[in-house]
Amino acid sequence: MSLSAQLINGLALGAGYAVLAVGWTVLLGAARLVNFSHGQLYMLGAFTTWFVVAKLGLPYLVGIPVALLVCGALGLLMQLAMIRLTLDQKIVNLMVVTLAFGYLLQGGAALLFGGNPQRIDSPFEARSLALGVARFTQQDVLIVVAALVLYAATFHVLGRTGVGRTVRAVAEDPKLAQLYGINAARVYVGVFVFAAATAGLAGAVIAPRSPILTSIGFDEVIITFLVVVLGGIGSILGGLLAGLGLGLFVAVFGAFFPPAYSMAAAFAVLLVILVVRPQGLTAR
Amino acid sequence: MSSLLEVRDLRVRYGHSPALHDVELTVGEGELVAVAGANGAGKTTLVNAVAGWSRAAPVVTGQIRLGGHDLTGIPAHRRAALGVALVPEGKGVFEQLTVEDNLRLVTPPRTAAGRRFRIEDIYRLFGQLKERAVAPCSTLSGGERQMVALGRALRAAPTLLILDEPSVGLAPRLVLDLLRHVRQLVDDGLSVLLVEQNVRASLQVADRLYLLERGEVVTSGDAARMRDDERIVTAYLGGLRG
């Protein structure tokens, strides 16, 4: 594959990583929360889309918002169940509880959808486009557009609106926020739902590129972690740049070396960057 | 004068350590009531209990009523909606947010009964804040931060404003300015509960004063009368009349 083809592949891959990571960036930056079931929510987003298309016979474009809503609703239930731990910022307990939720989601999905690999029938995956010698699909374009729209919207909401102002205030000092009449618990729930819904969205737009299994999700959590830390915890622009950078790195690296080494190489780069810039690429 | 705030049998403890014992306190409508006392007397614990707010996790018993609402057990953000605005000691603003963002963060609740302050009203009250509107609060001086904190509290259209040690870290001239602003707000009808370590300054602006010692109210009464009370003058004003 030519370098230009690898770059386009890397761009789509990286945009996918960025979509996957945006929820965690806000979650960790704004609410000091983690969600280790993020990868399973991605898996569930993919399978919900598959179910809507393959079993209900509805168009793929209906599957995307359904996946977003289902994962957002699950995020709401999860956060309501652990709101006390969230308010007390019991991070270790939250890690274990969200890990448990992840396994429950994986088991539940296996029961519902079976253990066979499935393919999401997206009309965009079948349509090829060409740019010079490089070929890519409309699905790749959809992923890049989804990433850009999602990041632009998140950047705007957090930086320019009253909702964003409230989230930033709670991120800085949830106790003080109470004196401003802000219900910090409601903000935590909202941010968690946003993160879960965007994980579902990631599953719906990225997963048509390859077969899906209910056991996927673990790699996605690791990639999310990498993107969030690389971009600088809580940095929206950093998340986008780190996602794109990681995708391009993995694609170009894969052109010269066996793909099995690409994640190890990505983590080696992360180590170097964190030694030089402990705050990540863009955080001040 | 009818009571806006009524505190009855208030007891607060942190774990097994008692901090307040059977405190009774009232604040009338349009009245400035000061709570004074030495460090550790329980002043901050008292006002935090009224606002339902604390960075620790105290156990609070007793009754706190505001204009007919029973505040006991209600979380701080809902007390804010009911008209209680606390400006805490120390960090009272979001430092990473700009001055204007801090002020815009508060919108008066629909049920707010107090006077409504628009952002322009706050800038009119504290002129220098307008020039610093887009500056992050981390770059402000101590006095400017106090103004933002007070402005933020007023934006909530409170019926009861609680100020915890607003003079800490401020130059004497700024303290007088700030207290003058507060007195003006009271004269316009706001009720204020002011915590001050500086008994002399409290007596200058307050209508009534409560003196706390080791978590108990040891004396209370009309500020003008207390200014002339030999016992108070000797014990708290160093024997000198101000």
Question: How large a portion of the residues of chain A is in β-strands, by DSSP E?
Answer: under 5%
Query: How are the strands of the largest sheet of chain A arranged?
Result: 1-2
Oligomer: heterodimer
Shape of chain A: globular
SSE string of chain A, helices as H and strands as E: HHHHHHEEHHHHHHH
Which characteristics define this entry?
heterodimer, A: 284 residues, mainly alpha, 13 helices, B: 242 residues, alpha/beta, Rossmann fold, 6-stranded mixed sheet, 4-stranded antiparallel sheet, 10 strands, 34% helix
Record the SSE blueprint.
The complex is a heterodimer of chains A (284) and B (242).
Chain A: H1 3-31, H2 38-55, H3 60-81, H4 83-87, H5 91-113, H6 123-126, E1 128-131, E2 134-137, H7 138-160, H8 162-172, H9 174-179, H10 184-206, H11 218-231, H12 236-256, H13 262-276
Antiparallel strand pairs in A: 1-2
Helix pairs in contact in A: 1-7, 1-10, 1-11, 1-12, 2-3, 2-5, 2-10, 2-11, 3-10, 7-8, 11-12, 12-13
Chain B: E1 3-14, E2 17-28, E3 32-37, H1 43-51, E4 59-66, E5 69-70, H2 76-81, E6 84-87, H3 99-104, H4 119-125, H5 127-131, H6 142-155, E7 160-164, H7 172-187, E8 191-196, H8 199-205, E9 208-213, E10 216-222, H9 223-227, H10 230-236
Parallel strand pairs in B: 3-8, 3-9, 6-7, 7-8
Antiparallel strand pairs in B: 1-2, 1-4, 4-5, 9-10
Helix pairs in contact in B: 4-6
Describe what you observe in this structure.
- The complex is a heterodimer of chains A (284) and B (242).
- With 284 residues, chain A is an all-alpha fold.
- Chain A has one domain.
- In chain A, 75% of the residues lie in helices and 3% in strands.
- Chain A has a two-stranded antiparallel ribbon with strand order 1-2.
- The relative contact order of chain A is 0.22.
- Chain B has a domain at 3-90 and 157-236: P-loop containing nucleotide triphosphate hydrolases (Rossmann fold), CATH 3.40.50.
- Chain B contains ten helices and ten strands.
- Chain B has helices at residues 43-51, 76-81, 99-104, 119-125, 127-131, 142-155, 172-187, 199-205, 223-227, 230-236; strands at 3-14, 17-28, 32-37, 59-66, 69-70, 84-87, 160-164, 191-196, 208-213, 216-222.
- Chain B has a six-stranded mixed sheet, with helices on both faces. A four-stranded antiparallel sheet of chain B has the order 2-1-4-5, with helices on one face.
- The relative contact order of chain B is 0.19.
- At the A-B interface, helix 8 and helix 9 of A face helix 2 of B.
